[in-house]
Design brief:
Elements (H helix, E strand, L loop, with lengths): L1 H5 L2 H5 L3 H4 L5 H9 L6 E2 L11 H12 L12 H15 L8 E4 L2 H12 L5 E6 L3 H9 L3 E6 L1 E3 L2 E3 L2 H7 L4 E7 L11 H14 L2 E5 L27 E6 L12 E4 L2 H4 L2 H8 L5 H12 L1 H28 L2 E2 L8 E6 L5 H12 L1 E2 L1 E2 L10 E5 L4 H15 L1
Parallel strand pairs: 1-13, 3-4, 3-7, 7-8, 8-9
Antiparallel strand pairs: 2-10, 5-6, 9-10, 11-12, 12-15, 14-15
Helix pairs in contact: 5-13, 6-13, 7-8, 7-12, 13-14, 14-16
Bound molecules: pyridoxal-5'-phosphate.
Pyridoxal-5'-phosphate (PLP) binds next to α7.
Length: about 400
């Protein structure tokens, strides 16, 4: 009785400070407002318009029909971990044991679990930005401090000033986060920069978290796979690599990804997975296993890449033809990050685009203050839809 009267109603129902202070994603703010409207050409989310390849869906459905609907190992099915290790080894010319792989309930969950493994309240995390908002908010949820290191625009391309980044990576930094190919800019790290950063982090005991979910979406001439940190690191380096089935195999709604960790983290990892999601549904894992081990998996990635290259070309050419739009060329991912002259406020512009012409783009400010004024256009759509979007933008600009 005494306790109940001494607490103010407001203080009893508020979440902790770190939660209140999280920034909500303004991509969602824009998209939620427009969802359900059929007159919108939406390019705000990072996903393909195409469904999951049929052979993957069938593998998942067959497993469900067989009754693979029970709890399974925290780290994932042994056969899937083996299949991912073989796939990753093949892709990057390395020998990766399955013992370093953990299957997670999405790339987002892989990111959160990786951070929970090594971050404590008060730790400092340096993040190369602009970046997908979730990545910069997660350390804050854990009470860590985020220091942003912005990419720069040089000669019409995004570039990492690696010397300036090194200067920020003082020994008191706990973790460096790099996402390459990058969401939203498409910037893709150079192999030499990976090496340089790794050596510096190694010297100072800094953890590296490398988000490589777009690694198969690399469009550099003669390079269809983006450079992976796994190819330059030693097994005992303080490196955690995030990957996902969402982008390469068009499985966004399946919610499955994976982590590649040093052996030193593996004994404790099952506990952290247990207290997050416990395990990924077995039938979902069977779909993923088909994706990485059936030869049709590579065929579907080729098909996706061909479509992306065509849409990307159509979009960039269309934007340049409109005029007054800056759209730097980028090597990877599935986004064009663009800036319209005389439109410095991205959220206001994104809202006006939806309201006036039904064009759904993500506001740059969602990816950090350094991206204010920019808009993200996901081009994982067919050329007809891209042409429709361009026409709407033309109308908007009068
Ligand atoms: C950079 C980056 N990392 C991770 C993810 C997470 O993907 P998912 O949770 O669908 O596996 C995304 C999704 O857009 C992303 O852009």
């Amino acid at each position: 009785m005494t306790v109940a009267t001494s607490l103010s109603p407001a203080s009893t129902t508020l979440p902790r400070r770190e939660v209140v202070e999280l920034t909500s994603s303004s991509i969602r703010d824009i998209a939620n407002a427009g969802m359900g409207r059929t007159d919108i050409a939406a390019f705000w989310f990072g996903e393909s318009d195409l469904p999951t390849p049929q052979f993957i869906a069938e593998a998942g459905m067959a497993a469900m029909a067989r009754g693979e609907t029970r709890y399974i190992h925290n780290l994932g099915l042994a056969s899937l971990r083996e299949a991912i290790a073989a796939y990753s080894s093949r892709l990057h010319g390395i020998t990766l044991p399955a013992s370093r792989i953990a299957v997670t309930s999405s790339g987002v969950s892989a990111l959160m679990i990786a951070m929970q493994m090594v971050l404590s309240p008060g730790d400092r995390v340096v993040v190369v930005t602009p970046i997908w908002p979730n990545i910069a908010e997660m350390p804050r949820l854990l009470g860590a401090e985020v220091v942003r290191h912005p990419l720069v625009i040089e000669n019409g391309r995004w570039r990492l000033d690696v010397e300036a980044l090194i200067a920020r990576l003082t020994p008191d930094v706990r973790m460096l986060v790099v996402n390459s190919p990058n969401n939203p800019t498409g910037w893709t790290i150079a192999r030499e920069d990976q090496q340089f950063l790794l050596e510096h982090c190694r010297r100072h005991g800094i953890w590296m978290l490398s988000d490589e979910v777009y690694e198969r979406l690399c469009f550099r001439p003669g390079e269809s796979v983006a450079p992976s940190m796994l190819a330059v690191a030693e097994p005992e380096d303080r490196l955690m690599v995030i990957n996902s089935f969402s982008k390469s195999w068009r499985m966004t709604g399946w919610r499955i990804g994976w982590l590649t960790m040093p052996e030193g983290l593996m004994a404790d990892l099952p506990k952290v997975i247990e207290y997050n999601t416990s395990c990924v549904p077995g039938f979902v894992q069977r779909g993923a296993e088909a994706a990485v081990s059936d030869p049709r998996g590579e065929e579907s990635i080729e098909e996706l890449r061909d479509g992306l290259i065509a849409s990307r070309t159509a979009l960039i050419q269309g934007l340049h033809a409109i005029g007054g739009i800056e759209a730097p060329e980028a090597d990877g991912a599935m986004y064009t990050f663009l800036r319209i002259a005389g439109r410095p406020e991205s959220l206001a512009t994104a809202k006006a685009l939806v309201a006036e012409v039904g064009l759904g783009l993500a506001p740059g400010s969602a990816f950090g203050p350094e991206a204010e004024g920019w808009l993200r256009w996901c081009y994982a759509a067919d050329e007809r839809k891209i042409a429709d979007g361009l026409e709407r933008l033309r109308r908007f600009l009068g």
